[in-house]
């Protein structure tokens, strides 16, 4: 790089930082305005705890209605998928210590409840360091959290598999890793990250798939398959767990990872440049996915500029924030990201903010 090129790059970074500071300041001021206009927003701990209690109680009630036969399995799955999306947002806010910061007992109790409601994910305490690093180095090669959600991977069977079943994908990565030391290291990491709830969660899922695949193949082949009373009792528990907890979380996680991995840029992002880290994705046809990740594609970019606002406030600030972010150069609905494996660089950009 020549002296002139270095000077131009320095000027560009300075200009970008000025834009970032301006966007952060504007969104923060708008958030303060909303807090004054709606005094209830100042009771952040109560609001967070209320959403948490409502979501957990909703899952219990919906599960009970399904078990008693009042609602079908598909209704229970969809309702609980929606409720777990609320819990994910609460957990994300808790990772940033937005609720009960000075009351560790209440804070950690909420963290634990989030983990129980989403047992297929590593503990939120383990994820905290990864997430903080994600904010510092978003989109760079060291951003492990982005890689976990498939950001930067070319589209194909492997990426789809990872979106559907991260545990199986991680296991296959370990099996095909070069050298026994690397295999053992990766397998150990997978086990550690999924202990204890993740192992029960994924184990239950694979038992469910295996048993029903076995009985289906038997019926197709005309075999007379008779399960013991113990097996039937066990599968009754497994079936209920899948409908009430596992299938809802798999839907939620697929939708979240699909949206998150494509609205984050990865691989060629300028370090700590919030203008390049994310885009806003809010076309109408993404709503089936947005529904189960609480409109993540439309509002998560705001979080990269202003961390202190809880998830519900980001929804309220979105119309204003989108205008400010668009003026600063944040991209909107850059669908070329699917072809570019989420790289930021592109030859032509035709991205406009949508309402």
Structure in words:
Helix 3 packs across helix 11 (229-263) and helix 11 crosses helix 14. The protein is built from 15 helices and no strands. Residues 348-355 have low confidence and may be disordered. With 355 residues, the protein is an all-alpha fold. It has one domain (3-338). The relative contact order is 0.13.
Helix percentage range: 55-70%
The count of helical stretches stands at: 15
- Please describe the biggest sheet, giving its number of strands, its sense, and whether it closes into a barrel: none
Q: What coarse outline follows from CA principal-axis ratios?
A: globular
Pattern of helices and strands: HHHHHHHHHHHHHHH
Q: State the total count of DSSP E strands.
A: 0
Average residue pLDDT: 92
Distance between the termini: 41 Å
Summarize this, please?
Keywords: Membrane, Transmembrane, Transmembrane helix. The chain crosses the membrane at residues 45-65, 157-176, 197-217. The protein is an all-alpha fold and 355 residues long.
Q: Could you name the key traits of this structure?
A:
355 residues, mainly alpha, 15 helices, globular, Fatty acid desaturase
Mind sketching the topology for me?
Layout: H1 3-37, H2 44-67, H3 73-95, H4 104-117, H5 124-136, H6 144-148, H7 157-164, H8 166-175, H9 180-193, H10 197-220, H11 229-263, H12 274-277, H13 287-290, H14 296-305, H15 311-328
Helix pairs in contact: 1-15, 2-3, 2-11, 3-4, 3-11, 7-8, 8-9, 10-11, 11-14, 14-15
